[in-house]
Design brief:
The structure holds two protein chains of two kinds. Chain A has eight helices and nine strands. By secondary structure, chain A is α+β, with helices and mostly antiparallel strands. Chain A has two domains: 108 residues, Dihydrodipicolinate Reductase, domain 2, CATH 3.30.360; 127 residues, no CATH class. Chain A is globular and about 55 Å long. In chain A, 51% of the residues are buried. The longest helix of chain A has 19 residues. In chain A, α1 packs across α4 and α6 packs parallel to α8. By secondary structure, chain B is an alpha/beta fold. Chain B has a single domain, classed as fumarase (Alpha-Beta Barrel). Chain B is built from seven helices and nine strands; from the N terminus they run βαβααβββαβαβαββα. A five-stranded mixed beta barrel of chain B has the order 2-3-6-7-9. Chain B has a two-stranded antiparallel sheet with strand order 4-5. In chain B, β4 and β5 form a beta hairpin. In chain B, α4 runs parallel beside α5. The longest helix of chain B is centred in the last third of the chain and has 18 residues. Chain B is globular. The model of chain B has no long low-confidence stretch (mean pLDDT 97). Classes of the chains: A alpha+beta, B alpha/beta. The interface between A and B is large, with 53 and 51 residues.
Chain lengths: 290, 206
Amino acid sequence: MPDLTEAFLELVRLTSTDLPPDVETSLKRAREQEASGSAAQSALDTILENVALARQNSTPICQDTGTPIFYVQHPRGWSTTILKGQIRAAVAEATKRTYLRPNAVDTVTGKNSGNNLGDPAFPTIHFEETEGEDLIVDLILKGGGCENVGAQYSLPNGRLSAGRDLEGVRKVVLDAVFNAQGKGCAPGVLGVAIGGDRGSSYYASKEALFRKLDDENSNSDLAQLENRLTQDANQLHIGPMGFGGETTVLGVKAKSLHRLPASYFVSVSYMCWAHRRRRMTVRGDETNYE
Amino acid sequence: MQKITLPITDDVIRELKVGDSVSLTGVMITGRDAVHKWMIDTFVKKSRKPEGDDEAVNEALKPILDGGAIYHCGPVVAGLDTGDYSFVAAGPTTSIREEPYQGDVMQHFNIKAVIGKGGMGPKTLAACSDVPGVYLHAIGGAASLIAQSVQQVLTVHKLDFGVPEAIWVIDVKDFPAVVTMDSHGGSVHVEVETHSKAQLDKLLAS
């Protein structure tokens, strides 16, 4: 097995400092839609200026470099223990080089570990064995501000008159966007999972965030839900930073899971505008990033 | 864009209205969750006795905070191994977590400007009227850009709270922000929430 520590370090650097093109394009489009001279447009100008500066200087787009969440798809025969060791070493080195802020805090003692290495679940690393020959590693850096405004609902929800159907899903997701106001650094991207148990549902809501913004859902009902939710959420006029305005969310990505007859969960993971996600693919001696 | 120099006088504060763009110059501190709890417990409510360097830090902070500003920020800092600190990325963190503490902290230290993102609630808005003070909204996530307005890191207190939670004393020049809560009871956050609630009700009924 190759030593990929350096490659993982580059993945972390790229993710923290260089916003993916689809997100930047979407922010530029949002800027065009805001009234000239408005606080919303000014906020988006600042955001875009910051994105360019961070890329140029290789400094973090946002100081809250969040929880590093890795999704690793590996071919048969790879050691997940070794990969985990390499990822953890890369995360510690990235912290030393200020691509990441030290973010791992012991919940009992309150002590920050100083290098982003906490218990085995920090950073978060998910492994899955795949049939192919490539090693594919997706990374998302998810900040605390937006993570705090995530929400989970159990349908039916009487307060919102939300039943156990996609219309009910629409209602509770809009409620989550309303409750978030500007606190999750709007305009955000919503990862929505329906079904599953409480754990798998939240997990899937984060997985949904790995899809590109222009990617259309292969399930036509969910595709329709995503479009409707994006339109409706923007009708709330919470706007960039919660200043009021046309763009409250850049997009919605939904995923469905099988559920128990008794349960119908809807999980919403709110990703801030600084939607830092990157993919690394290793094929033989070659490593590519997108 | 109104240029403001720290410390700020009551007259300047009273002139500021929601929607005004400002740029701040002077010495301020960062302080977020751990700092606010420490201030309240140790010096405002005095539910815990000062320990270690608590008193010394309090004395050092008093003149900076009197008429000054506190920035809700957990920066990325270079030079941790040498002590020659500089800010690499320093955008605002979500302010609402300090809502239980902020008003009392403003009153106690005579803080005129609270800087953060996402806005704050009724207790802080009331303190803005009384002290008087303002809430200044920085652009969340614009961390590399805002770090450029930090000319120098003067010192750090309570580094044992961790890098993001420590009290960084910084000298800033033309730090950009927008007034979203003023000393006359105005709040952009209340306005936007009220409007978006009406919109939500319509969307839920459709």
